[in-house]
Amino acid sequence: MNEKKQKSVAAITLGCKLNYAETSSILDMLVSQGWSLAAIDEGADLIIVHTCAVTGQAEQKSRQQIRKIIRKNPGSRVAVIGCYSQLDPARLADIEGVSLVLGTTDKFEPGYYLADPDAEQPVPLVKVSPVRELDVALPGSSMLCRPEKGRTRAFLKIQDGCSFGCAYCTIPNIRGRSRSVPLHQVIERAARIADAGYHEIVLTGVNIADYRDGDTGFSGLLQRLEEIDIRRIRIGSVEPDLLDDEVIGVVAGSQKIMPHFHLPLQSGSDAILKAMGRHYDTKTYRQRFMKAVEAIPGCGIGADVMTGYPGEGEREFGEMYRFLEALPAAYLHVFTCSVRPGTALSRQVAGKELDPVPHAVAATRASQLAELGGRMERRFASAFCGGELQVLFEESSANDDGTTRWSGYSGNYLRVDVNVDAGVDPDLMKGFIHNVLVEGFGEDLHLQGRLLF
């Protein structure tokens, strides 16, 4: 009697760190069910595409990836999951070659992935639970989250959804309202990550600083995570109005929590911030930003910046540019506004309450902000030339002279490259933290240095 062939699964993830964390949870779940992991180009029985829908461009990229994978893997079942699936399952199901479309909650149900790969399936299986059900369930939070490649850092989901209701944002329509993973589950998962040998935990969620379990808020959670035997804890994105003195104080007094925040600004014009329904103005944003950089040595803070928001004229764009120019930010993530279906902004545009910004104008403004961001990134990184940084190494590539270039991130999220002789054991580099003397700049604004063993 022939043994049943072990099913194989591969995955590709688009979008945010939360998506990566959830993909890792799904793969762990399937492995526990007897599946084997494979690479995308190995002809896996099942290929999962975890989609993003935060912008129209993200949706387009998701569709392109789906079609590319179907072309290159005609014998694989293709499952499309995640935010885009929740928002527009019919469009994804219409793509020829898609076998399965699963929404935000449904993607964690193992049974949906178990169809016989050799069975005929004339139409895709589509399972997308209503958004109202997402406000209760928080699946995928109790699993150990692992990165898809290597063993450098692990993602830990602590929260999902958002209750802020910004006019442009479709996340509440996709992931529901804000809810938090119980504290005991977060601590248990963090301890398992540390026991598995990781050196860094990355906290993930939609609005992680909105975390609350009973009397424990975000700062209390951070204090509890300090007890975990791990070298690094990275926070990532925090809403400006939630970066309060208590959170800043915990990070400032910590040896484990990295001096790095991603503080979404969206606009440097108070008029546009008000139209967006954001919970702060530019004065508050700058106060919170400066409080953090003054209290936390070497703190690197990046910002999301959106241009082309309907109603943004030359005056508002100029206000944003000047506001950013005076801010000691480490980097900028620049993108143009995308009017998402089902949002307050989409209704305002449809009702002629706000005038869209012409595409060419928005593109020009985005280019100007990207150029400014490059200068800000170089200015911030330059301050660390000649000093030492602790770097968690993640990737390597061969140099023409026989050495190996290793690349990783400092605590304040600066990209650092070093060249290492062939005799250095790569098992002592990938996923490990080493001191580096920074000597200048290399390629792509990366800092260049040498190891201090």
Quick synopsis:
The protein has 453 residues and is of the alpha/beta class. The chain has 14 helices and 22 strands. The strands form 6 sheets. It has a 6-stranded parallel sheet, with helices on both faces. Strands 18-19-20-22-21 form a 5-stranded mixed β-barrel.
Could you explain the architecture of this structure?
The chain is of the alpha/beta class and 453 residues long. The chain has four domains: 8-129, Rossmann fold, CATH 3.40.50.12160; 134-232, Transcription Regulator spoIIAA (2-Layer Sandwich), CATH 3.30.750; 235-383, 2-Layer Sandwich (Transcription Regulator spoIIAA); 388-451, Beta Barrel (OB fold (Dihydrolipoamide Acetyltransferase, E2P)). The protein is built from 14 helices and 22 strands. The protein has helices at residues 17-32, 56-72, 83-87, 89-93, 131-134, 171-175, 183-195, 218-225, 245-252, 270-276, 282-295, 314-325, 344-350, 359-382, and strands spanning 8-13, 36-37, 46-51, 77-82, 98-102, 125-127, 154-157, 159-160, 179-180, 200-204, 212-213, 216-217, 232-234, 236-237, 260-262, 300-307, 331-336, 388-398, 404-410, 415-420, 433-441, 447-451. The strands form six sheets. It has a six-stranded parallel sheet, with helices on both faces. A five-stranded mixed barrel has the order 18-19-20-22-21. The protein is globular and about 65 Å long. Residues 142-150 have low confidence and may be disordered.
